[in-house]
Amino acid sequence: MPSPRYWREIPQRYRLEASKCKQCGVISFPPRAVCPECKSRDFDLHKLSETGKIVTYSVIHVPPREFSGHTPYTVAIIELADGVRLTAQVADASPDEVAIGKPVRLVFRRLFDEGKSGIRCYGYKCVLETENV
Amino acid sequence: MKGGHMAGIVGYGAYLPKFRIKVEEIARQWGADPEAIKRGLLLEEKTVPAPDEDTITISVEAGRNALRRAGIEPSKIGAVYVGSESHPYAVKPTGTVVAEALAITPEVHIADYEFACKGGTEAMFVAYCEVVAGALEYALAIGADTSQGAPGDALEYSASAGGSAFIFGKEHVLAEVLETYSYTTDTPDFWRREGEFYPQHGGRFTGEPAYFKHVYNAGKAILEKTGLTPREITYAVFHMPNGKFPLTVGKRLGFKTEQLEVGWIVPLMGNTYSGSSPTGLCAILDVAKPNDLILMVSFGSGAGSDAFVYRLTDRLPEVQDRAPKVREMLEGKRYYVNYGTYAKFRNKIKLVE
Amino acid sequence: MREVAIIGAGITKFGEIWDKSLRQIFVEAALGAIDDSGVDHIDSMYVGSMTPALFVGQEHLGSLLADYIGLTAVPATRVESACASGGVALRHAYIEVASGMSDIVLAGGVEKMTDGADATYALASASDREYEAYNGVTFPGLYAMIARLHMHKYGTTREQIAMVAVKNHKNGSLNPNAQFPREIALDTVLNSSPVAEPLTLMDCSPISDGAACVVLCPLDLAKQYTDTPVKIAATGFATDTIALHQRKDPTVLRAVTSAAKEAYRQANINPSQIDLAEVHDCFTIAEICVVEDLGFVDKGAGGKAIEQGLFALDAKLPVNTSGGLKAKGHPVGATGVAQAIEIFEQLRGNAGKRQVKNARVGLIQNMGGSGGSSVVHILTVV
């Protein structure tokens, strides 16, 4: 991951900054120039909600290179409380704890390293919401 | 450094990973006697960071919890200081990632600190001083680590991961800093050379000449400075490299078990190094009451201790429930791993690059 | 717009073709098509290839391949739409002939996937690199998520999904050009190693090398070249969001529905009039969603339909008589054109043991990524 491409997405990956259409209220993540719903070009900054639920998921056994050595891991499409959907890993939980509909919370984790000497790449994952933390 | 300017902690928060490994499992791996270890070190289990966690991610989560309790706009924070001995980069600050993630950038001063296990309290000391001096309205100090113990070494039973964050300010203080004191000498009890993966230590030399000398002297001196006796202190928390040392030094300073046990979280947490006494402090803040007095003394090998005395205010009860508590993290949902998984998570197994 | 016919086809065997390079396999297929059609010149060519740059470090395929076919100076365009590259190349060749711009146009596709590149990384470029791939989802992972949701919403079973592979291998065992010309049992599919749950290795189309080419000309010139031309009656193409998570219903491939709707409209037919179809079974679950989204069965009924054998070789609407991507192989850019060749040969009566009786109207559906683009063509006998 070359630095400029990583750095440019920091507001989205670290702070979940999205854009909300001034006209119809649809939230786009990442932010866009044109509202996919009403085609308007006017937006407000919107920070995504941090809780949501699992729409669907899969447990990956054959990973891309950055994630080798760490399988199996779970990826999911989650729907946040404000209606926005994301693709994110489900961290910590074992695959058999994951189910469609379970509540989740977004957390900050290190996604991968660019090899031994490259930059360390951070971003969002989700964890299953438990009663405790 | 004289306190009493009503500057102190405005928000606090801790974060511990969910994975654990038991002392028995590590002992089993190396053919040691688990009961002897547990008796000798007073440890049960320790936290293990997931492969996607590090000092930066722990700092961000602890920082988020501190912000929840502080209830302030992140952009008002004028400094972010992270103390650790496991910063994810050798050269590139932890603080910049943390500040970006917490929406504190760009008008902020950032510096990383290290001093073995007391990087956290160093950050706290500097953050407090800047606020008390009037240079900054708010400053965030974090102590976090994903500490590493050499395989088969005694430190492997205790080296764990976790951290705590404290926002210092003058408005809406929940824990006023009454006094600070630092006691530091050059004592090579524990170190790691550049390029080495595991630290080295001086065995029993880490005891009296290092830990006890600095913690005891710092604790004694700050009590004298404040004119307080041990009986007047509600809770005392010391750096916890294992379960035994903090109880021993606490008794030596004149404290009783009831004063020590709330902050004594090491049997379930392990030694989170720069997060150790700071997280013990958070555990105390989670349950303490207005007007309680707290003594905190850290220890960093090399060696030195930072001591603080806090007086809690009426604001504390309003914010305790705003973020997860340390006891919940220690006793709530957690995942136990075996040694092989632990070694993989801790990068003790050389994977092909 | 003029009517357009396919008058010749050339295809390589699909598989791990160690001894031939990208240009060599494309030239083989191109010369095969040129010879089969009997044309003595080519006015223009289109070649579909997903990512020769990531696989073999080569771009500028138009120039390279025209050169090596012996067609230097001919306008040559490389077309890309991830795994739909071949189908979109075919579409543009069709448009160039239909518009009157050119008479004889070569449409081909090629992919050389086994030369040591990181195929997972290359294939992930069909997804949203920054918001899907960055977060660790793989191609099979995306389709696996579709599968899990499909099972949750419609009660589709794991076995039904696996039956797509069984059916396609049964067909593929009759195809001499297939990468895996052998049948497989349902248990083999269910018990093969997990790739992205619930999908296993046998749910996934393979990594393949291969090339496929066809020659197009105006319909009214076709009989000069062959007694059995096949008409391209319709072309439909649509896009959808690139990221799976941006779609309201991840089990609905809107690009397929939209492209098909346009194709049915142009050909003036409805789905029940399709005699056979080649669809994009990059993963078994894809075929289930596609037969629904093409309107062959109701939404959610795809699993049951496969189980009931509605799409078997001897059924009313055989799907993937070639063996599909699963058994025939999936050299990404070549697939769309290879699908056209299967229907072309079926409509001509040249499909040997796989021949569908009375095949008169065929549909081909090619798709990019997790459904971010799809192109549908309808071919008919003349």
UniProtKB/TrEMBL annotation, chain A:
<protein>
    <submittedName>
        <fullName>Transcriptional regulator</fullName>
    </submittedName>
</protein>
<dbReference type="InterPro" id="IPR002878">
    <property type="entry name" value="ChsH2_C"/>
</dbReference>
<feature type="domain" description="ChsH2 rubredoxin-like zinc ribbon">
    <location>
        <begin position="8"/>
        <end position="44"/>
    </location>
</feature>
<dbReference type="InterPro" id="IPR012340">
    <property type="entry name" value="NA-bd_OB-fold"/>
</dbReference>
<dbReference type="Pfam" id="PF01796">
    <property type="entry name" value="OB_ChsH2_C"/>
</dbReference>
<feature type="domain" description="ChsH2 C-terminal OB-fold">
    <location>
        <begin position="47"/>
        <end position="109"/>
    </location>
</feature>
<dbReference type="InterPro" id="IPR052513">
    <property type="entry name" value="Thioester_dehydratase-like"/>
</dbReference>
<dbReference type="Pfam" id="PF12172">
    <property type="entry name" value="zf-ChsH2"/>
</dbReference>
<dbReference type="InterPro" id="IPR022002">
    <property type="entry name" value="ChsH2_Znr"/>
</dbReference>
UniProtKB/TrEMBL annotation, chain C:
<dbReference type="InterPro" id="IPR020616">
    <property type="entry name" value="Thiolase_N"/>
</dbReference>
<dbReference type="Pfam" id="PF00108">
    <property type="entry name" value="Thiolase_N"/>
</dbReference>
<keyword id="KW-0808">Transferase</keyword>
<dbReference type="InterPro" id="IPR016039">
    <property type="entry name" value="Thiolase-like"/>
</dbReference>
<feature type="domain" description="Thiolase N-terminal">
    <location>
        <begin position="4"/>
        <end position="218"/>
    </location>
</feature>
<dbReference type="Pfam" id="PF22691">
    <property type="entry name" value="Thiolase_C_1"/>
</dbReference>
<feature type="domain" description="Thiolase C-terminal">
    <location>
        <begin position="238"/>
        <end position="380"/>
    </location>
</feature>
<dbReference type="InterPro" id="IPR055140">
    <property type="entry name" value="Thiolase_C_2"/>
</dbReference>
<dbReference type="GO" id="GO:0003985">
    <property type="term" value="F:acetyl-CoA C-acetyltransferase activity"/>
</dbReference>
<keyword id="KW-0012">Acyltransferase</keyword>
<protein>
    <submittedName>
        <fullName>Acetyl-CoA acetyltransferase</fullName>
        <ecNumber>2.3.1.9</ecNumber>
    </submittedName>
</protein>
<dbReference type="InterPro" id="IPR002155">
    <property type="entry name" value="Thiolase"/>
</dbReference>
